[in-house]
Amino acid sequence: MNNISMNKEISTSVIKSETPVNRGMHALSVAPMLDWTDRHARYFYRVLSKRTVLYTEMVTTGAILFGKGDYLSFNEEEHPVVLQLGGSDVNAMVECAKIAEQQGYDEININVGCPSDRVQNGRFGACLMSEPQLVAQCVSEMQSATNIPVTVKSRIGIDDQDSYEFLHTFIDTVARAGCQHFIIHARKAWLSGLSPKQNREVPPLDYERVYQIKKDFNNLTISINGGIKTFEQSQAHLQHVDGVMIGREVYQNPYLLAEADQILWGDNTPVLSREEVIETMSDYIDRYVSNGGRVWHVARHMLGLCNGLAGAKQFRRFLSENANKAGANSELLKAAFAKVSY
């Protein structure tokens, strides 16, 4: 059967809680992912879910203060949207926090989790876990200079500094400076010897350590990240912590987000069909192309939209082969979707 009509129910089932859902803003967020969570990806995710918190790619203080590009632009529809900031120079961090607030960001998140050599050379990312006082100073002065929350995303440890006491001390020190929300990737990071990709896969997950942090700091908002792929897993984590952050699984299977509001927050709004998503994104593409953009800049984030359906491979191939051609418009997206059947 070819594409179903827009008003027909999709086949996936919505799992709702039997009791009223009373979850905070950060129950689900999409992780900051370099080269992936740009403003086009975030707009796409916002079409799928109205409640999920969206994060920018990590943007360095140097790019904001001295770069020639516009690294902070976003669509108004993206709210709530968080700027993830990379840096450690307190004055630069404060200046960037002010700019982010002026631009309209809802929060600023400090990157204390990325293990790449390039990031370490800039003295930010995961290596900052060994300098909790510096992170605390950044948080304190950034919050004093702005009226939006400053949060921290970290690992559970780095190298041989991977005891629970090490993580506890880091959280305690930074929380005393005013940070109320920590997103913790439940793996430690090796600062040498492993690539960033390996650091997302090789160090073992330790969810219990993050759960214990929540028990010890019950007044803080604690979100968990790492290896989470389903809402069933998310709901299990939410029995222990306040929020779940999902990264690559959302990028590879974005339609996962279509049921997020209903499953995690208990909303009664209808789940968008893929047809409705295609129609909304077609309008967005046409606006973007009319301003000089290319379809591929948007469509590359949509390659996984039809995963699991017959014709998904043809959908991906058609977009990949044609979306970067001059003169392409939203009709190309619709032509790709016509290759999918249910």
Automatic annotation (TrEMBL):
Q: Where is the active site?
A: 114 (proton donor)
Source superkingdom: Bacteria
Gene that this sequence comes from: dusA
Q: State whether keyword Lyase applies.
A: no
Q: What does this protein do?
A: Catalyzes the synthesis of 5,6-dihydrouridine (D), a modified base found in the D-loop of most tRNAs, via the reduction of the C5-C6 double bond in target uridines. Specifically modifies U20 and U20a in tRNAs.
EC primary class: oxidoreductase
Q: Does the keyword RNA-binding apply?
A: yes
Q: Which InterPro entries match?
A: Aldolase_TIM (IPR013785), DUS-like_FMN-bd (IPR035587), DUS_fam (IPR001269), DusA (IPR004653), tRNA_hU_synthase_CS (IPR018517)
Domain DUS-like FMN-binding: from-to ranges: 30-337
* Positions bearing the site annotation: Interacts with tRNA: 111, 197, 200, 316
Q: What is this protein called?
A: tRNA-dihydrouridine(20/20a) synthase
- PANTHER family, alphabetically? FMN-LINKED OXIDOREDUCTASES SUPERFAMILY PROTEIN
UniProt keyword terms in alphabetical order: Flavoprotein, FMN, NADP, Oxidoreductase, RNA-binding, tRNA processing, tRNA-binding
What family is it from? Belongs to the Dus family. DusA subfamily.
Q: What is its EC number?
A: 1.3.1.91
Task: Give the residues annotated as coiled coil.
Answer: none
- Which reaction(s) does the protein catalyse, per the Swiss-Prot or TrEMBL entry? 5,6-dihydrouridine(20) in tRNA + NADP(+) = uridine(20) in tRNA + NADPH + H(+); 5,6-dihydrouridine(20a) in tRNA + NADP(+) = uridine(20a) in tRNA + NADPH + H(+); 5,6-dihydrouridine(20) in tRNA + NAD(+) = uridine(20) in tRNA + NADH + H(+); 5,6-dihydrouridine(20a) in tRNA + NAD(+) = uridine(20a) in tRNA + NADH + H(+)
Q: Which cofactor does it need?
A: FMN
Spell out the PROSITE patterns in the cross-references: UPF0034
Residue positions binding FMN = 32-34, 84, 153, 185, 225-227, 247-248
Q: Which residues form the signal peptide?
A: none
